[in-house]
Design brief:
heterodimer, A: 3-stranded antiparallel beta sheet, elongated
Chain lengths: ~475, ~190
């Protein structure tokens, strides 16, 4: 397959790096701008004049927290809408982590809005806030719905905090998280029917309508409709199930013109297998071979559905959502590349080794395994590295006692810190783009070593296979 | 995001916030009236003509009628907010026949239809003296959720504008619409 990629041309260099950084900055600024615009519009409309007493302060906080909270909520949803232009710039894992970070602030702002709205009305009517709350909720059905919405949001956020996630099955969390769409929807009527800012300013009204439509259209299309439509049109099916070493399985998926999905080596798909008990949730899997007329995943058995995958029959229909991720040549800016993998993290690394544009010696592959006789895809990696003349280092041995990504050093061996050992293996590391894929703690150790060597963050590309 | 971008973005955001704020200071819309409970009242007393006109008119008429004198000074302010819906009909009725004697201006008193809207009913009583609106009283109007203050502001705005040609009250759009309808309805009856 190496000969296929020989013709591929990749633009590298600092100009390209600058372009990548600018795109990321632009997209992130756009997110902030979406939040800033309503707040500025409110202030420019005279929202901060006449701040004379407690009631007016509560009112201003009420309005601002509503405007900022709502636009932030929409950005929060946009981040998980799987929109290609966003995804290509930031990558799904970065989008997801931004989404996670915004969850709590959004809830706090919307709670602040709820509380200050009630308090400011209760001051205006000089009655106790509880009376106001009951009055508002009984007088205005929209506010009753919105109150239900905010309560649902509290439930969703609580279910997503780390302590709760640990105690909860993925299934339970997933179902609760679906409720958040309901929470957002039921809060909409009160914004457009009672929200003074939206009623007073047609253009702000239009802005929010446009934002809502854009977010929901994208969520519905990219998260649900498009994958289903593509699966049916392409007739995406499993055509081969092959047991590999170390309890891993390779699934080959074919479909009519499946190459139109435009997957690249290093990317992953959300795979939904239409089999009993598995159809309702999808899993992220990296492609383990340079995608062409077929897409191959190599999947480790790590419990839940991944164990069942080994028993799938060819012919089973699947729904592929993706491709996702920027753990690919898209982020490469240097000639030299170091690929570092552990465990099933070898899947995307193998695909990269196979397809990245390279002269002999440009690419160094480091594969950390416990036992060479039982390492996934090792034979394939060896063959690719031989054909394409990459440097391959298979690091074999048991884990070190402390943290670390390399095998424990033997007694009598000269004791060296890992970053020195790494530099000995890959002397071009400092002039390389480094791609890392493996389990979380292991990746941390690699990052630690790279930090010691002052490898710039822009040249470190990381994909965790469990997240 | 790169540090440089972040710094530039922060500066731009801060300065546009300042610009927005100064634009906001220049625009003095009636939009914020509902926001304050008592300040709406102090605010409304700032434009001199309206504030002086109103109580003066009230006292004048009230002394003429010799009926509700004690309530008069506070009438357009606190009196309105709490007591309007129930007590207004009586004074309105008395105002018409007892026009101040000297020049015998033409005083017309008229009550609007009850305007039912989304959140209740609004009905107003207008007094028009020599073609100028001199008094607006609430006949009906639910006073909860800050609407009492909205009415106070709306009465002042109507007197100042001598029409319903004024802005919206933030947070009370429907109430404002219903109020304007009621006033227009009353004016049409004259």
């Amino acid at each position: 397959m190496a000969h296929q990629t020989a013709a591929k041309q990749v633009v590298l260099g600092s100009g390209r790096l600058l372009g990548i950084q600018r795109r990321i900055d632009a997209v992130e600024l756009l997110g902030w701008l979406a939040v800033l615009i309503p707040a500025l519009s409110y202030v420019a409309d005279g929202g901060l004049t006449n701040l004379s007493d407690a009631g007016s302060w509560f009112e201003v906080i009420n309005r601002l927290s509503a405007l900022i909270g709502t636009s932030m909520l929409l950005v929060h949803m946009l981040l998980i809408a799987r929109i290609p232009w966003l995804e290509k710039t930031l990558g799904l894992d970065k989008l997801t982590s931004h989404h996670k970070k915004l969850g709590k602030p959004v809830l706090y702002l919307l709670l602040l809005h709820t509380v200050t709205a009630v308090v400011s009305y209760s001051i205006a009517d000089s009655v106790n806030p509880l009376v106001t709350l009951i009055g508002l909720v009984t007088d205005y059905p929209q506010l009753l719905l919105a109150t239900v919405g905010v309560v649902l949001m509290i439930v969703v956020v609580i279910s997503s905090i780390r302590a709760a996630r640990r105690r909860m099955s993925y299934e339970a969390w997933y179902l609760i998280h679906l409720v958040s769409y309901v929470a957002v929807l039921v809060a909409i009527p009160h914004q457009f029917e009672l929200g003074s800012e939206l009623l007073a300013s047609p253009w702000l009204n239009g802005y929010f309508i446009a934002l809502y439509v854009y977010v929901f259209a994208n969520v519905v299309w990219f998260r649900s409709l498009r994958p289903v439509v593509a699966s049916l049109l392409m007739n995406q099916r499993i055509t081969q199930v092959k047991k590999e070493a170390n309890r891993t399985t390779s699934l080959t998926i074919t479909g009519r013109r499946i190459e139109r999905l435009g997957a690249e080596a290093g990317q992953f798909f959300m795979l939904r297998v239409m089999a009993k008990g598995m159809w309702w949730r999808s899993h992220p899997f990296s492609v383990s071979a340079s995608p062409s007329k077929e897409i191959r995943f190599t999947i480790g058995a790590r419990g839940d559905d991944t164990a069942k995958i080994q028993d799938l029959k060819p012919g089973t229909r699947v729904i592929l959502e993706g491709p996702f991720g920027v753990f690919s040549e898209a982020k490469r800016t240097r000639q030299q590349v170091t690929l570092i993998a552990a465990g099933i993290g070898i899947a995307p690394i193998r695909a990269l080794a196979e397809s990245m544009a390279a002269e002999p010696g440009d690419i160094t592959v480091i594969y950390r395994v416990t036992d060479t006789s039982d390492a996934a895809l090792l034979d394939e990696v060896k063959r690719i590295c031989q054909e394409r003349e990459h440097d391959l280092f298979v690091l074999t041995g048991s884990r070190p006692n402390g943290p670390g990504f390399m095998p424990a050093q033997q007694e009598g061996e000269r004791q060296q810190p890992e970053y020195q050992r790494l530099l000995t293996i890959a002397p071009y590391l400092l002039e390389s783009d480094v791609y890392i894929c493996g389990p979380g703690p292991w990746s941390e150790s690699v990052l630690h070593a790279l930090g010691k060597l002052h490898v710039a963050k822009d040249h470190i590309h990381l994909e965790e296979f469990s997240w | 995001m790169r540090v440089g971008t972040r710094v530039v973005a922060t500066i731009v955001a801060t300065s546009s916030a300042l610009v927005a704020w100064s634009i906001g200071q220049q625009s003095t819309p009636p939009d914020l009236l509902l926001v304050q409970a008592s300040p709406a009242v102090t605010d409304s007393s700032a434009p001199a003509p309206t504030a002086t006109q109103d109580p003066a008119q009230d006292t004048g008429q009230d002394t003429g009628a010799t009926s509700t004198a004690p309530a008069a000074p506070a009438d357009s302010n606190t009196g309105n907010t709490s007591a309007t819906p129930t007590t207004t009909p009586a004074p309105t009725a008395t105002q018409a026949p007892t026009a101040p004697a000297p020049v015998a201006p033409v005083v017309v008193s008229v009550t609007s239809d009850a305007i039912t809207y989304k959140y209740g009913t609004v009905q107003v009583a207008l007094t028009v003296t020599d073609g100028a609106i001199t008094s607006v009283k609430m006949v009906q109007g639910d006073a909860s959720n800050g609407r009492a203050d909205a009415y106070t502001s709306l009465v002042d705005a109507t007197l100042a504008a001598q029409s319903t040609n004024y802005g919206n009250i933030s947070g009370a759009t429907f109430t404002v619409d219903a109020f304007k309808k009621a006033v227009d309805n009353a004016l049409a009856k004259i």
